[in-house]
Amino acid sequence: xxxxxxxxxxxxxxRPMKAAVAPAFPVYKDLADRLAAVTSxxxxxxxxxxxVCSGYAYSDAETLCMMVTRLGLERSxxxxxxxxxxxMFIRSTAFVVQSACGKVAVVAYRGTEPARFISWxxxxxVNPEKVRFRFPDAGHGFEVHGGFYRNVRATKVEVVATLExxxxxxxxxxxxxxxxxxxxxxxLTGHSLGGAMAALMGVMLVTDPAYxxxxxxxxxxxxxxxxxxxxxxxxxxxxxxxxxxKNVVRYVYQRDxxxxxxxxxxxxxxxxxxxxxxxxxSWKRSARPTRQINNLLxxxxxxxxxxxxxxxxxxxxxxxxxxYDHMPNxxxxxxxxxxxxxxxxx
Length: 346
Hints:
The protein has 346 residues and is α/β, with parallel strands linked by helices. Helices cover 32% and strands 18% of the residues.
């Protein structure tokens, strides 16, 4: 399924009713040029922009396009790519955003959909797939999370074909045509399951010579509340790669339990890449990556923490893990720089 949306430069639909002062959109002026100019990651500008894209990837192409318009990518094209096969635990949705100038593209993967049981089964389907990523000394391949791999693979062909059009200076819109510039800067992003898909896609692009032209434009992968992708040997191979070791950036909000999954009972998994955790009101670089949760009895407590946050008497209970902290709105709010407004103009 392909859905394309474009939102023009007018912001009439963004103005709050009866407001004394309308919000001053866009949030970031010259956003495409600024994203294209970033050379070192993590950086607060793409971190905030990608968090917004990841959060609104749970909606639809029109909503995501409206939000990136507010951020500063006016007249951008947004293409939604879907593939769903319930019997195979596939529920894959990717959004490709192309700036009006053509310089920047963002691929935002939708995470676990709370109301879709199949989406939860995708997360739970940890039975590993053996995948031959082209690392040195790869042997017979690496074991990665089966559900994550099948979902990113499901839409990979369409996503790559769309990005190759952008690389040629073509519009990704349904009507085709051209844009002023070919693709110069590509970002991948996602929250939760979407973060796992974005990170796997990043690994695919930079390790397969067939994707070298796209890999050359890939600036960074930003993920939020991302679970672990594969076995420790796979994580070590990624940590030894010159791009993946620095530019697959993971954000963890407070006691979010999902980055500690899958649990040790499901097998050995590990993270790679820079990790930043939000604690005591600021983001701090983790001294070491988050490790797997090894006590399954802690998972009900993580769910209980969500309920506790809804009751004022229990909000300050010291839960070690929390599903409440996994919500994408926390990542969006915590990553908004203090000197800029939100995507709602406040």
